[in-house]
Amino acid sequence: MDQGISLFDRLVDEAWPAAHRTEWGNWAFRHAGGVTKRANSVLPLGEPDDLSRAVDEAEAFYARLGGPCVFSIGGGAPAGLDAELESRGYRLVDPTLVMTAPATAGSGRPAEAQIEHAPSQRWLDTWWEVDGGRHPDGGEITAKEWAARILRGVEAGYASQERASAVGRAVPQGEWLGIYCMAVLPAARRRGLGGSVLRTMLAWGGEQGASHAYLVVTERNAGARALYESEGFGVVARYHYRVRP
Fold first, then answer.
1. Could you tell me which residues come within 8 angstroms of residue 8 by beta carbon, excluding any fewer than 6 positions away?
2. 51-78 mean pLDDT
3. Structural contact between residues 161 and 192, judged by C-beta atoms closer than 8 angstroms
4. Strand partners, 22
5. How far is Cα 166 from Cα 186, in angstroms, rounded to an integer?
6. Are the beta carbons of 165 and 184 closer than 8 angstroms?
7. By three-state DSSP, how is residue 218 classified?
8. Coil, strand or helix: which one is 66?
9. CA-CA to 162 of 20 to 30 Å: which in 115, 185, 222, 244?
10. Left (φ > 0), alpha (ψ -120 to 50) or beta: where does 183 sit?
11. Which domains are present in the chain?
C-alpha cells in the first residue's frame, strides 16, 4: 500500500461523509441515498483475509439496499482488487486526480468573497444546479436532502460570491484543507469568479491552521483542471471507481 496516497483516501472519506456506513474489517460500505459515488461506494483500505469473500460481502450489502455495488480504488486498495473486480465484469469509471497546493497560495483574500459556517439556501441551489441534476430523487428522502446531510456531516466553510453565483466548500482537516463543491452558474462563467472563490478558501484555510490544500477532479474536466493548475495545484495521486453492471 502507498501510505502517501492512502492518506488522501482517508481525507476524502472524512470530508465527504456518507450518512450511513458499515465497517467490515478495514473496509467501509458507505451509503447516502445514491447521491455521489463517493458516499455510496466501498472504501477498501487494506488487505482482507479473503479478498473474494470481502467482495461478496460488499455485493450483498448493496444488493440489500437495492443499489449498484461501487468500489473506490485509490492508493489504499488491496493490490489484487482491481483485477478481481474486472474479472467480475465491473466497469472502470471516472478516473480522478488528486491535486495539492500550499494553503498560502490563497494569500490576499478577495474582499467580495464571503465564508459562512453553514450553506445558505442560495449556496445549496447553485451547487445543486451545477452538480446535482445527475442524482434522481427516490424514497422518502430527496436527493437534495441526502446531499445536505453529506455537506453538514463535518464542519466546513462555505464560500460564495456575487449572490452565490460562484460557490465552494472548504473542510479544515488539521494541516490539510479539503476543497469541494466548486461551482459557478453558467451565466456567471469566464469572469474569474471560480478562481476568486478558490483563493478565498485557501486564505481562510491558512487562517484555520492548514498548511496544505487538496482537491479531487475528474481527468475529463479540462476546464477545472486548468483553473486549479493556474492557482498552483499539481497532481500527486489518482483513483477511479469500479461499478458493477
1. 74, 75, 98, 214, 216, 236, 237, 239
2. 96
3. no
4. 29
5. 10
6. yes
7. strand
8. coil
9. 222
10. beta
11. 3-96 (no CATH), 100-236 (3.40.630.30)
